[in-house]
Amino acid sequence: MTQPTTIRRVPGPRPRLPEPLRTALTLAATGVPVLPLRQGKVPFGNCHQCANNACGGRPNMKSAGPCRCPGVCHAWAAATTDPAVLTSPYWMAAWQRAVSVAYHPGGAGLTVVDLDDAAAIAWARSTLPATRAVETTRGEHWIYRGTMGSSNAVRPGVDIKSTMAYARWLGRGTGRMAVLPAAVRALAVKEPSPVRPAPRAAVPTEAGGGECRHRTPAYLDRGIAMAEQRITAASSAVHATVYRTFLAVLSTHGRCGCLTDAHITRLFTAAQAKGETLRHCTDAWTNARTRLGL
């Protein structure tokens, strides 16, 4: 009896992965969280599960934390190192249309100083310690080890991208990566406008004609310390906590002229350590003053 012929299937070549995805998988394997970018160097829009920021993101797509849906949304918060997520059907559809790769510097323990033109590069070379440099279309990315709050336009042609931000991947660059210096951290800490004191006649005084209790150094310092602690202890809704804390400080101390730039800078620094940008801090401070009529 003739034995039946066994037909063996020869597996064909695996589909070739899109170039951006291959780059992304290589970076993810080294611990760098990545995400796809579409035309215009912008991330893909919210997925249907997170339409209208249903999972807690802000309108500008800077979510308060990593998105837990399977889609590519919320910009920096969508960045991941998980190859199973990067190659899932939803993400594959995005990679097929992606034109480049972005990464979350803060998630990789890095800070990118984005130098947008020749003048900014010249300033950096004369001011900042040398570190790894990556060429961009118009300037350079200087990459340091360490994280900080992200902030745009810290000086002409200079942005800082670290926590709650993404940067386009443009290659490994050249030079040895240095530790994030204090000079870079200082760029994001600007002195806010001082609080305008109310007329002295409007300041309530203690019985007996003593000074306003708000001007007592110990009372004010204790209030600022408690405000810093409240911001630092926030585990969620950081932006709302910062606003409410600013509002409380101003409601107590904003009308007697006792707040100084040093006090306000302490509050801004605590907020930025939790990931708030300088713009967010300034907006929260301004909104709190407006609500109180200051």
Short description:
With 294 residues, the chain is of the alpha+beta class. Helices cover 34% and strands 14% of the residues. Strands 4, 5, 6, 7, 8 and 10 form a 6-stranded mixed sheet that branches. A 4-stranded antiparallel sheet has the order 2-1-3-9.
What keyword list fits this structure?
six-stranded mixed β-sheet, 34% helix, 9 helices, single chain
Structure description:
By secondary structure, the protein is of the alpha+beta class. α7 (238-253) crosses α9 (278-292). It has helices spanning 19-29, 83-86, 89-97, 118-127, 182-187, 217-232, 238-253, 261-273, 278-292; strands at residues 34-38, 42-43, 100-103, 110-115, 132-135, 140-145, 151-155, 158-161, 167-168, 178-179.
Order of helices and strands: HEEHHEEHEEEEEEHHHHH
Unreliable stretches covering 5 or more consecutive residues:
57-64, 191-211
Count of discrete alpha- or pi-helical segments spanning 4 or more residues: 9
C-alpha end-to-end distance? 101 Å
Helix fraction bin: 25-40%
Using only C-alpha atoms, the radius of gyration works out to 25 Å
Strand count, sense and closure of the main sheet? 6 strands, mixed
> Would you count the extended β strands for me?
10
Overall mean pLDDT: 80
Overall morphology: globular
Beta content comes to 5-15%
Query: In terms of structural class, how would the helical and strand content be classed?
Result: alpha+beta
